[in-house]
Design brief:
- With 468 residues, the protein is of the alpha+beta class.
- The protein has one domain: Cytochrome p450.
- Helices cover 52% and strands 8% of the residues.
- The protein is built from 18 helices and ten strands.
- The strands form three sheets. It has a five-stranded mixed sheet, sandwiched between helices.
- The longest helix has 31 residues.
- Bound molecules: protoporphyrin IX containing FE.
- The site of protoporphyrin IX containing FE (HEM) has 27 residues, from helix 8, helix 14, strand 5 and helix 18.
- Protoporphyrin IX containing FE (HEM) binds next to helix 8, helix 14, strand 5 and helix 18.
């Protein structure tokens, strides 16, 4: 381990070098050629698309060139050769392992953050541009209390957030405004209008109604996220970062009724928060950032429904059945969003970093290894899943267990996304307004049931909406 690497390790301060175990019983190692292929075919497209904020032109190129399917095929080839793995990549100056077996996905996610830290080095460099104290890149006691704050504020175990009835009017109103805009535009729905409407919902739910049209904070976030795409290759713009945090702290202090910011402020006032107001403000950029993939996945979900009339019909029946409820659960729309995320994962690389040596059946993984779980390999592996390329909402009709194949759009285990239920609540109700009130035709793509593409470019997806 180089001194520079030691400094950037999330937990270890002293590393005595590899133990006899990791030397005498190493994990299998990919050849230099295989490693180069993984870098070129798996990592490069993922990083080029933009891990923190998508680059629309690259997403279009990756879709057109079929690079996502090639990435899955590359990992399948390695799995055939190396069996259970994990396989170490032959990276000069960097220890990196690729996970190949479903059991190891479960294990690694369950054993996070020790010995598999969420605060992986590259991720820390990417997120330091706008949220250096967020739970995801924290470790030890800091991580525990920041995680706890997220769990409480986001009501993470509850399918229906306790403030749902306060959030849903914003969801319905903004969907209505979007539908009026679409009608005025002759029925065409494109991603740009959807994204803007969606973020009006997000601003209102997270920060409060008066933030509905606050595009400045979102633009600041977008600029910092674009820097985050370059991780350590770009210096941090501390002024812009401070600006984000100041604005967010002001929103929490304002505590507009019905917003999550207000709930956070109440927790602070009642002394129920283990985190300081500063740390609290550092958690919120992650939410604003992560509501972006929620927009993408729900929009792609509309494409799934438009291409699967039977599923759309079932969804509409459920919308009608739950119409009288103040906070409908809408399981089929939730499953549609989960399927969209399985088919087109918005966090394709789940990264961990070992805080010590870890023993696997095939050998020992050294301390300080970056562990790559490439979700599309597990989500779209037609060699093991008969529903790999099919829209199959039924795979989400129960809480998935450890005994099952790992489908991990929101990760899993102690670091599972604490926003997952809130995302599903808001997206399902937003989509319900659209497909409940309009007929929907997909204009831009031809999705063939049973042969769904490896990537669906949300930016170019277009629909025609008409009166039902
Ligand atoms: C479709 C939308 C979303 C997806 C697919 C998603 C997915 C994920 C994934 C895969 C992780 C784990 C990342 C890792 O381990 O490296 C994660 C973590 C996290 N997500 Fe989400 N997320 C979404 C939206 C949200 C939203 C809207 C919020 C907040 C309102 C949120 C809050 C968080 C937080 C705080 C973490 C860090 C958890 C920890 O480290 O303990 N996410 N998310």
């Amino acid at each position: 381990m180089t001194p520079a690497k030691q400094q950037s390790s999330p937990v270890s301060t002293v590393y005595a070098g590899p133990s006899a175990d990791s030397v005498q019983n190493p994990l299998p190692s990919a050849t230099a050629v295989e490693t180069a292929k993984v870098l070129a075919e798996v990592e490069l497209p993922t990083i080029s698309k933009g891990p923190i904020i998508r680059r629309p032109r690259v997403v279009a190129a990756v879709e057109n060139l079929g690079l996502e399917a090639r990435a899955v095929a590359r990992v399948q080839t390695l799995a055939e050769k190396y069996g259970r793995g994990p396989v170490m990549l032959a990276m000069p100056g960097r220890k990196m392992a690729l996970v190949l077996h479903p059991e190891h996905v479960h294990r690694i996610l369950e054993e996070s953050p020790e010995p598999f830290a969420t605060a992986e080095t590259l991720k820390r460099h990417a997120l330091k541009h706008f949220e250096p104290q967020v739970a995801l890149v924290s470790h030890g006691a800091e991580r525990s209390r920041r995680r706890e704050t997220n769990e409480k504020v986001l009501d993470h175990q509850q399918a229906i957030h306790h403030m749902a009835e306060q959030f849903l009017p914003a969801v319905r109103e903004e969907a209505q405004t979007l539908l009026k805009q679409v009608d005025a535009a002759g029925g065409t729905l494109d991603y740009s209008s959807y994204y803007k409407a969606w973020f009006r919902v997000v601003n209102r739910v997270v920060l409060g109604d008066s933030y509905r049209d606050d595009t400045e904070l979102l633009e600041l976030m977008e600029t910092q996220r674009a820097r985050g795409n370059w991780a350590f290759l770009r210096p941090v713009d501390t002024e812009a970062r401070d600006d984000i945090h100041t604005r967010i702290k002001q929103a929490v202090a304002k505590a507009e009724p019905g917003s999550i910011a207000a709930y956070m402020a109440q927790m602070q006032d009642r002394g129920e928060s283990a985190t300081s107001p500063d740390e609290d403000a550092q958690q919120i950029p992650q939410w604003l950032f992560a509501f972006d993939p929620a927009g993408m996945s729900s929009y792609r979900g509309l494409a799934l429904l438009a291409s699967h009339p039977d599923q759309l019909e079932a969804v509409r029946q459920q919308i009608d059945q739950e119409a009288q409820q103040h906070a409908p659960l809408l399981p089929l729309l939730r499953a549609t969003v989960l399927e969209s995320l399985r088919l087109w994962a918005t966090t394709p690389m789940i990264l961990r970093e070992t805080t010590r040596e870890v023993e696997f059946e095939n050998g020992v993984m050294p301390e300080g290894t970056t562990v790559l779980i490439f979700a599309p390999f597990f989500h779209r592996d037609e060699k093991n899943l008969d529903y790999a390329h099919t829209f199959s909402p039924e795979v989400w009709n129960h809480e998935r267990t450890r005994e099952e194949w790992p489908l991990v759009p929101f990760s899993s285990g102690p670091a599972v996304c604490p926003g997952r239920n809130l995302v599903q609540l808001l997206t399902s109700n937003f989509m319900a307004e659209i497909v409940g009130q309009r007929s929907i035709d997909l204009l831009s793509h031809d999705l063939e049931p049973g042969r769904l593409p490896a990537l669906l470019n949300n930016f170019s997806l277009k629909f025609h909406l008409s009166e039902r």
